[in-house]
Amino acid sequence: MARSKNDIEYFYRWLGYTWGDHIGEWMDMYGERKGAQVHRVCIIAPRDHSKSTTLRVKLLHQCLFERWRNKPFTIWLFSASKDLAVRRLEEIREDMKRHPELSRYLDPRRGNKLELRFTNGAWIRATSVGSAIRGEHPAAIAFDDVLDDMGDLNPGVTREWFRKKVTPMLSPGTSIYVVGTPMSMNDLYHTEMLENDAWKSGTWSAITNWDEWKQDPESHPVQELWPEYRPIDFLLEQKQAMGELSFIQEYLCRVVDDEAAVYPRMLVRKNLNMDGILEVEKIHDSRYVIGFDPAQGLGKDYSVIVVVRQDSDGFVHFVNMWRRNDFPPDRQADVLIEMIKRYGNAPLAAEDVGFQQMYESLLAQ
Question: Is it true that domain 2-203 has CATH number 3.40.50.300?
């Protein structure tokens, strides 16, 4: 225990967890206050790379070995829901129970599933994001993956809660630690932390050179964040299982922002006609238009043809779609010609750059 007090890497390993270079970087950020009145740290990191474990070990280490204003260390821990908050607190409790040297610090007389009490007077209280907290001024506040894209709180409500309820809990000498995975460009991390000079922040990706490696794997060998335990084969298997968009958000920590889409998900769902069917030919006296986005190469992505029509009231309706990959350009041109005829010689729209111009000559032939 004496060595653990001054060597958090030793403490981390002693608890039975696997260390990594990225974990060392996070611990350095937690520990380097650099003269700030309030030590604000935001770590954006991929799933399954021990960001929650690292935060948990940091909090336990502070409660065991640090004091604040000559008093026991105190922490408020926030999670996306109360169930998750209970689970995070129970994980700390289990870490202590597994080691006789730590179990004696558990106060058996006080505490509950949302409060962990230490015999040295320290405590950790846990709750969910959005909870009303007034009059509390702990030594540290911790946010562990507080954002959930399936939750009920919208970004505006979360932002106001953070500014008016959480930030006033901080005082000179306190700390706030935030770890998570981004949800959108207007989530709490982006609006309050990542571009704010008051915060020490960083973003980590499970594949640190994803763009270069994807473009030219021969010239740019893959660089995993944790190659010993999260190798590229595992990551690509996860990508295949969960889909590319989810993988980009959860493992590459890049925002797939629905609000930046031309047709946001909420707008599409609002205008779905559950009784509608695809039209394989022109059946309405309306204006039809065909849009074409060709793939950039065989096996890389999909060529997509979309047919829409505009009714007499000006509303646009989705009519049909065709998509294929590994489909030669000359055969795509044949499909385009067939669809143009089926929809009454509908005009064709395509981006007029680069390789798209090749299709103009194919259609002309």
Answer: yes
